[in-house]
UniProtKB/TrEMBL annotation:
Cross-referenced Gene3D superfamilies: SOS response associated peptidase-like (3.90.1680.10)
A GO MF label: lyase activity
Record's protein name: Abasic site processing protein
Pfam family for this entry, one: SRAP
Family stated for the protein in its record: Belongs to the SOS response-associated peptidase family.
Ranges for region Disordered: 236-259
UniProt keyword annotations, A-Z: Covalent protein-DNA linkage, DNA damage, DNA-binding, Hydrolase, Lyase, Protease
Organism the protein comes from: Isoptericola variabilis (strain 225)
EC number(s) on file: 3.4.-.-
Amino acid sequence: MCGRYASFRDAEDIADELAVARIADDARLLPASWNVAPTDPVRIVVERPERLEGRSTGEITRQLQVARWGLVPSWAKDPGVGARMINARSETLLDKPAFAKPLAVRRCLLPADGYFEWRKLAVPEGAPAGAKVPKQAYWIRPADGDVAALAGLYEFWRDPSKADDDPDRWLVSATVVTRPAATELERIHDRMPAILPRSAWDAWLDPAVGADEALEIVQGAGVALSTVPVSNRVGSVRNNDPGLVEPDPEPLDPDVVRV
């Protein structure tokens, strides 16, 4: 799964990397985060028609927007359900009503610098029954230092309690698509976010690409990744600083996973 990631590049740098034509004001102002957590506002890259005055729309452009992490289906009674939909398994995208339609028409990329995962370790010998299972946090990012473009889906939810002219009546939310972990990463966790290579970005974002082809993209080749054991400080949302991605000089893991 993907429950924490980091996104600390400047909005302009992201726009340059992903050939974004327009940056929304809130996306430009969103601060860097080394500990993005569920329900946080996150940047997403989408291809949508430009909004013009009135109700008309212009040509399709690539945009950097903001969404809440945790997809809220359009038919949900309240946005709270989003906290349980931060991830979408690639194997069942077409089977889940909440994800099938976005897969066909509302795909996005969540630009990140990497993500965090926890490896469960063996309970020490002699530990009391019911002792907490120790875990080692890992920082996982593209081996070449490139942006990690997480495959995602997004959705619009209309708040029925707000007036038609209320600018906050629409909530945009997103989920990260996950896939089985690559062989070398299985020792850390059996799932990982689908990080798309540059060659797949255009097709994934293209509204003309259908669900079946999109599914092939997200289940196709990924990118080479590297791993670094880091402090378990990342487990608390109160911690958000560059130190979270620094190597742990004394990792708990006796058999550090190096990729």
